[in-house]
Amino acid sequence: MSVDTPVRTLDVTRVRDDFPILQQRVHGRPLVYLDNANTTQKPRSVIDAIEHYYAEDNANIHRSTHLLSERATRAYEAARVRVQQLINAPEAREVILTRGCTESINLVAQSWGRANLRPGDEVVLTWMEHHSNIVPWQMACEQTGARLRVVPITDAGEVELEAFASALGDRTRFVSIIHVSNVLGTINPVAEMIRLAHERGAPVLVDAAQSVPHLPVDVQALDCDFLAFSAHKMYGPTGIGALYGKAALLEAMPPWQGGGDMIASVSFEKTTYNTLPYKFEAGTPNIAGVVGFGAAVDYLRRFDLAEVARHERDLADYAVARLRDLRGIRIIGQPRERAGVVSFVMDGVHPHDIGTILDREGVAIRTGQHCAQPIMDRYGIPATARVSFAIYNTRDEVDVFIHALHTVRELFGVRS
Ligand code: 7TS
Fold it and tell me: DSSP of 122-139, one letter per residue?
């Protein structure tokens, strides 16, 4: 599909037909898939694009002169342009294709971080980061003598701008913040946070793993310096993702992995590096994954992302309202700006037991710490149960989920 295909209105029944996996039953029940923050399902167009690539075009890219290699290279670079257009990056060379959000953040921490952080410098994060936006910075801090500065969150699960501003100071060298929390659902005011960080001269990375698939994200409007996200959370394949970076910053950064394709010339005395974006793409990449990523971007761009965001917010609000009707449920986080993510705990029942029983009812959710242990510590809980919505979910599915929670309560003898 061309990226110029007109935007289609969100007709969820039709959308569901695009996803073969949703048509099945699990444990004899229709599948209700509410684990989309973990990974989303894949539409037929993405599955077909990957199959077509292997059946028709498979070859290595950027290397050979034969036709298949030309086609593979074209498909790979066309996907980069689709990603560029999705996030409104000024140039395609500012989009580095990586293994995913985690690798994108590690790239910045190891390349920018090791080159620029000095003893005593501070890297500012929030308390609601995913481990993949904590640990890479801890590693860079260990290597350079810099340290983390963590902005607290409120009971509602929000970052207050005053708290954020007061964490910024003369020692702030870098800011790395989550756009949408994968646990609390909070949409952070990142544009304002970026403005405040820039006033201090600190570049900002936005962890957009949970925002790019669910709301309009425009890197020029945000003025972020880096943006990291994964294809598999936006209807694309696993093991692929992107890092956007402003060209001037990327140009100044050293490569972080060496190997084929990232060089201009190599001798035992001296190696010179390739231009952007290839400087950061060492070795044969996941070409089929990138092709699938491009198809996923095409799929997403068929819709008005503001409408998608409203749909998923509606499902979250509906789930919150229905959960509030149940006694013994505590919802973790009540942010005013919320995406389609709701975490909760139930008195007397461990989240893992909730997950197991819901699975028997055909309802797939995630339970545990969601790779965000500091949030669990913040709320004094070991784990949560979490529902997270995507474009194909419905209010009827929320009803099935709530009904299944009644089964959990009955099995555990929790009084209604
Ligand atoms: N950042 C955020 C905000 C995330 O939610 C995740 C994954 C990542 C980074 C890492 O993405 P990856 O594709 O590189 O692994 N979040 C989740 C989740 O909520 N449940 O499972 C994975």
Answer: EEEEETT--GGGTHHHHH
Please count the other Cβ atoms lying within 10 Å of the Cβ belonging to residue 80: 22
Please determine, for residue 2, whether its predicted confidence score (pLDDT) is greater than 80. no
Residue nearest atom 5 in ligand 1 by C-alpha distance: 182
Active site residue 224: no
Q: Are 259 and 283 in contact (CB under 8 A)?
A: yes
DSSP-derived 3-state class of residue 61 = coil
pLDDT tens track for 109-132: 999 999 999 999 999 999 999 999
Tens-place pLDDT, residues 370-389: 999 999 999 999 999 999 99
Q: What is the mean pLDDT of residues 80-109?
A: 98
Check the CA dihedral 153-154-158-160 and report its sign. negative
pLDDT tens digits for range 270-287? 999 999 999 999 999 999
Q: With a 6 A CB cut-off, is 188 part of the ligand 1 pocket?
A: no
Which stretches of 223-286 are DSSP H helices?
247-252
From the options 3.40.50.1820, 3.40.50.720, 3.40.640.10, 1.20.140.10, give the CATH code of 48-300. Answer: 3.40.640.10
Give the mutation target among 182, 183, 293, 370 for probing the ligand 1 site: most ligand atoms within 8 A of CB.
Answer: 182
Are the CB atoms for 187 and 153 separated by under 8 Å? Answer: no
In tens, the pLDDT along 288-303 reads: 999 999 999 999 999 9
- pLDDT for 1 equals 46
How is residue 384 written in tokens?
């949560």
β pairing state of 32-33 and 29-30: unpaired
Q: In the chain, what are the domain boundaries?
A: 48-300, 304-412
188 CA → ligand 1 middle, Å: 16
> Which CATH number fits the domain 304-412, given the four candidates 3.90.1150.30, 3.10.450.50, 2.60.40.10, 3.90.1150.10?
3.90.1150.10
